[in-house]
Amino acid sequence: MKNTIIAAILTLPLIWSINSCTNNSAQEIIDNNVEEQVNTDDKALLLLKTNCFTCHNPNLETDNRVAPPLFKIREHYLNEKTTEEEFVKNIVHFINNPTEENSIMPGAVRNFGIMPKMSFKEDDLKLMVSYLYKNDVSSDEWYAKWEKFEKEQAEKPQEINYEDLGRNIANETKANLGKNLMAAVKEKGAAGAVEFCNTKAIPITDSMSVVLNAKVKRVSDKPRNPNNQANTDELSYIEGWRKAKQNGEKFGPKVFESNNKMIGYYPIETNDMCMKCHGTPEKQITAETLSKIKKLYPTDKAFGYAENEIRGIFVVEMDKKIENRK
Ligand code: HEC
Ligand code: HEC
Question: Which-ligand-closest: CA of 305?
Fold first, then answer.
């Protein structure tokens, strides 16, 4: 995005000199606004692609759906009178608190189960939802735009903000994991889904993460799988998160450099969906699920959680490739 802005700034004197006798500055402002809008749209699409489309697949085929397509959701949240502000407020509210009471799509909840709680930057979220307000994502015109965008993305060299990139990679992993987990629980029940909870099988398809040779793991201070035990540094991050939560403060991700790699920590919070396997034994975890877990993980420590607690962190390791200019 910055490249386009720089390009725009560089070409400005040229436009200036050509137009200096016709005084076209109003036109310039309009052109710049159009340019900005295009950049905002691209940013929103990229965010939607990594954060929402994995579950809310925009493609029309209906097999293996794990969530309703976004155009269906858009229809439910929009009528002739809805303002952009209302639309954004309602959807952001749901995403931050995905519960049955907050849902206005009971059929979707019945078919797919409630949407898992994920954390997004508030600004990013607003950008994505306001894009949904402005764009009819069921139109042929939009599909053409989407296809073009995907093609361009594949070819474009990108600047790197490692914190955002790591977050995208963590979110993509989480979305893939959530999708597989929801499908497995829906199909086989919690006990049957226990085997599906391993992240190792989940490929990260984002082109940037491939370029950066990114690796993702989940670790915890109370791991179910002993291979997921957090190390000293990771433990202190988890502890820091808990303390901040107690004090009602926000605790953001942590990104640092180590051996020419960029490492990012991103918290994983619990929600209602996790309780079937990480909640209170007998009460929330059924005896059947519990015995399955005990058999596979004799040293399991990952139970007794409530909602909105830190279950562990994503550790994203990225090659440090291109100068970080942000
Ligand atoms: C891990 C899968 C998953 C991801 C990722 C995901 N969703 Fe959902 N979402 C669902 C499922 C399942 C439903 C249907 C059940 C429900 O309504 O809660 C849903 C429903 C919704 C609803 C309807 C709420 C209602 O009234 O019931 C909205 C709005 C929504 N998603 C927005 C988003 C946006 C925007 C993103 C990206 C920022 C996103 N979702 C990412 C799974 C996901
Ligand atoms: C169907 C049962 C099930 C559900 C539902 C479930 N998990 Fe797990 N979880 C597991 C199992 C089994 C493992 C061990 C995976 C492995 O061997 O790596 C695990 C491992 C993890 C780990 C890695 C650290 C560790 O303890 O080994 C995290 C983090 C985690 N789960 C978070 C969650 C969150 C957050 C949710 C809810 C969004 C959730 N899980 C829902 C069964 C489940």
Answer: 2
pLDDT the model gives residue 173: 85
**Is 219 in contact with 315 (CB distance < 8 Å)?**
yes
H or E segment and range at residue 71: helix 70-77
- Does 119 lie in the same domain as 201? no
Same domain, 100 and 16: yes
Residue 33 within a domain: yes
Number of domains in the chain: 2
End position of a domain, from candidates 155, 188, 219: 155
112 and 229 both lie in a single domain: no
Q: Is the pLDDT of residue 15 over 70?
A: no
Ligand 1: centre distance to CA 122 (Å)? 16
Residue closest to 238 by CA, chosen among 219, 255, 257:
219
Question: Are residues 183 and 111 both part of a single domain?
Answer: no
Relative to the alpha carbon of 112, which ligand is closest? 1
Give the model confidence (pLDDT) of 195-220 as tens digits. 777 665 566 666 667 667 888 899 99
Nearest CA owner, ligand 2 atom 6: 274
Rounded CA-CA distance 8/187 in Å is: 52
Residues 312 and 238 reside in one and the same domain? yes
Mean model confidence pLDDT for the chain: 82
Q: For a substitution probing ligand 2, which of 180, 227, 276, 277 has the most ligand atoms within 8 Å of its CB?
A: 277
180 lines ligand 1 (CB under 6 A): no
Report yes or no on 326 lying in a domain.
no
Domain membership of residue 60 as a residue range: 2-155
Ligand 1: atom nearest CA of 177 is 1
Q: Are residues 50 and 106 in the same domain?
A: yes
- With a 6 Å cutoff on the Cβ, whether 275 touches ligand 1 is no
pTM of structure: 0.58
Three-state SS for 319?
A: strand
**How many beta carbons lie within 10 A of that of residue 216, not counting itself?**
23
- Which residue's alpha carbon is at the smallest distance from atom 35 of ligand 2? 270
CA 274 from chain center: how many Å? 18
